[in-house]
């Protein structure tokens, strides 16, 4: 799910999105804690930065929340 040329995401946010796509469990959803853990481990981000990126991905329509779990869109 890399850049399609008109994405409003920063390169760091795009890399984070790619890391989440690769780590998403087979059931297709994950907790905020699991998402933070992926970004800390895979992208070497501090937790506040990971939290900010999750929020940005949600605001740009790449993630959405259902009953406390995050899901990726087909954006």
Essential attributes:
75 residues; alpha+beta; Arc Repressor Mutant, subunit A
Describe the structure.
The structure is a single chain. The protein is 51% helix and 13% strand. With 75 residues, the chain is of the alpha+beta class. It has a single domain (11-72), classed as Winged helix-like DNA-binding domain superfamily/Winged helix DNA-binding domain (Arc Repressor Mutant, subunit A, Orthogonal Bundle). Strands 1-3-2 form a three-stranded antiparallel β-sheet. β2 (63-66) and β3 form a beta hairpin. The termini are close together.
Write a concise synopsis of the structure shown.
With 75 residues, the protein is α+β, with helices and mostly antiparallel strands.
Whole-angstrom Rg: 11 Å
Query: What is the CATH superfamily label?
Result: Winged helix-like DNA-binding domain superfamily/Winged helix DNA-binding domain
Going by helix content, strand content and strand pairing, the class is alpha+beta
Mean pLDDT: 89
Helix and strand arrangement:
Layout: H1 11-23, E1 29-30, H2 32-43, H3 47-59, E2 63-66, E3 69-72
Helix pairs in contact: 1-2, 1-3, 2-3
